[in-house]
Amino acid sequence: MDDCQVVWSVSDVNRAMREIVEGSLLPFWLRGEVGSLTLHRSGHAYFSLKDAHSQIRIVYFNGAAAMARLGIANGSLIEAFGNLTVYEARGEYQFGVKELRPAGQGELQRRFEELKNKLAAEGLFEPSRKKPIPMLPAHIGVVTSPTGAAICDFLNIIDRRFPNVNVRIYPCQVQGSAAAAQVAAGVDFFNRAGGVDVIVVTRGGGSMEDLWCFNEEIIARSIAASHIPVISAVGHEIDFTICDFAADLRVPTPSAAAELVIGKREELAEKLARLSKDLDNSLMLLLTRCRARFDRAAGSFVFREPRHLVEMRRQQLDELENRIGTSARRGADAGLAKLDKLAATLETLNPARQLERGYAILFDPAENKPVTSCRQPKGKRLSARLADGSVDVEVI
Question: Is the pLDDT of residue 369 over 70?
């Protein structure tokens, strides 16, 4: 090696590149859509700006508060003023922001809202369409990348809690242009093949563009058409996709999906244990009460002297017979006395008794009724009824 040959260090190269980049371009305005936003507790903001074809890393020192105040989030379209620089520690170039302003809604965010509103208008997100998640799924279908962290977290929780649960994985891409069609094909496959009680569509977190395939219409319609309940576990807790709205249940992370599916089994096992304990306690209480009743019955006078019970019932029958006889005689005597009284009254009111005392009753033979008035025509013939017979009379 020539002693005059200069050997650069990596730091020397990165430092030189920084001087070249920062010295070749004046500060300028940069327009793009915000993605992968992180507001650090130090007060700095780190994110990316992207358009339809490229993206660039952005750093905004002490800008977290300003971005929060302006309501800038992932998907926001902004215009940032600053200059290009090089982060020497990683040899990456980035854009340092000095000032920024909102420029409207980003393209991805616009497409997201348009598709969301379109499918919502068709009723694909209606609660009435949601299918209940089974309480005890013995077979779980998972649509995800077989090499991603999401499936590892999912399987670890399943294996740790209920290793006997059968998990079937449909391998597919979860990022990129082909991912949406493959995820939809996985949901369709489990619906055709059957054999699973619930389908979990999952992947780990990422930027909006990383998760964009889960905002494609083909996935939403495949999930909406599924006759098997579908759980969406895409991204982190703050990430929402069209897949989440179309699914029967949305959970924030892949781990949460596993805990939800298996947690229901644990909940049921605990409930069964409580019910079993309550049943045992109830049976013991019932047995104790029955034993107490048996002890009281065994010690009672009736069981010690059963003949006494028979004799007591016989005595009660005799007393009842005597009361019935006495009551019957009293009733008969009262009836006879009343009958005698009525007979005497009837005898007193008998018209024959009055005739025996010298009275007579005049009858009009023509009308065959008693005469009650003295205004009778002269010569009218009447009949007078006496105690021993009747005589004819004439009005003079």
Answer: yes
